[in-house]
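Model: You mentioned two targets. I'll fold them one after the other.
Researcher: Yes, keep them separate.
Model: Target one:
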Amino acid sequence: MISEDLVSTCAELERQELTSPTGEASPQEYAQLLAIYLCQSDLCNAKFLWKRIPASAKSSNEELSLIWKVGQCMWKRDYPAAYAALQAPWSDNVRHIMTTLQEELRSRAIDLIANAYSSIALSDLAAMAGINDREAERISNERGWIIDAETEMVHPVRPPPSSQVITSSEGQLNKLTDYVSFLEN
């Protein structure tokens, strides 16, 4: 779960970009904003941000390209490559965000596996979660998943369904209006 701190930082960075006299943020601010968008799995906004970042900012800050490399891997759903790209040395400016992104990716992958797979090879589980086989085995045991030692297959246990909040028609219409308004502007 993304912290409220990152959500408020995202809003502040967006505000700074919009209100800056030149209409541009600093490369460090762009790096933080891009990393937060990725952390929120907001790949569309990340892609639009990448396109509007000035070439001079991209060339003066190599870290922006490294962050975007992670975004490209996420866009292609190449999670093993995303985990590899996340191993880059990060500056203090984005290190905590990239660590949170790595944890979020791993958590989403494990939740996806729990909900989508009846069995998966231990090595595939490890690759999808960006961990080694031993760590995958530990996580499987913690979750009560069954591991067949002979075939090295993991049998995830599907979590109980959560109570879903039913949205009213008016709420759905408001959400659709917000999406359309966002796309038109």
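Model: Target two:
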Amino acid sequence: MRALLISNPNATTQSAFTLRRVAAALREVEGLHLRCVFTHYAGHAAEMCRGLTRRDYDVVIAVGGDGTVNEIINGLLGPVDSAPAAHEVPALAVVPTGSANVFARALGYQPYPELLASQLAQALREDHRRTICLGTWNEGWFAVNAGFGIDATVIERVEQVRSRGFAATPLRYLVVSTEAWLRTQAKPPSIEVRATSGAGEVLNRHTMPLLFASNTNPWTFLGPLPVVTNPRNSFDQGLGLFGLTSIRGLGGVASMLHLIGVGHQRWFERWIKRRTVQFDDATSVELICPEPEHFQVDGEYEGDYTSVTLGCVPDAVEVFAPQGKPLSVRRSVGHALRDFVRVR
């Protein structure tokens, strides 16, 4: 088996210890011929993967976060309307060294080097792979999520901070998120959403200040805790859409807290239900804004847009994944915190 390992040295949790663990485990995989390269700038991983076929490599191993995975997928598949079949390009494996690592964790990889290394080696040794659905935006691809609103604004501001040499710490994310929410109180984004599901259901909503599409369940992680918005979502169906119709006032604060899993008592959910929009198995989504708004894909700021078309492609890419089907994540951050306190 021929493998190309692409490592992003600037990934949040990249370390020599993790690489040593992975390298030692891969050396134990009989017949694996490994080539290792490092990225040097944004977009480098996509450039290295562009035009690769199964004749070049059997697998590309991404060592990085969700942004690195996104680059490799876009490099391998190219424009959506001319993408090759999954069996024509190298399969994908992941060594998660980013901050959230949503893609790898949704596949079932553990965020601990000693477990991850053995999981990856076993998946390669036993040739355990599956094909998954990928999301699309205009002519590009996404593996985890995409959307307009506060999350895109926060990502753009954090990227500005990191470009000045500051670390993206949880406290910095909190400060930036608070500032972004305060700015939206005066002039919230206005997003028109038109979507169709695989079952023919239609969503048509106007003037939403926040909306994102997810290709996984959970949508993201806060440390070890999953953030669930669309419990039915998975890599085997269309996109899950989640949005808020208002983020102003006390109800807006409550809705934002509910988004990260706080407040799942029945009275609380009834109170904010009229502010939330959930839509599952979306196959076609059109997002329109009267003014350019920040847009993010897989945790990376992509620019300002007035319209974006989202979609999904079944069986778009092969991935090496741990043995067994990942458990469906239906629990919220609030539930996990309560269990932790009860055990302690």
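Researcher: Noted. Anything on target two?
Model: The domain at 142-313 is CATH 2.60.200.40 (Tumour Suppressor Smad4).
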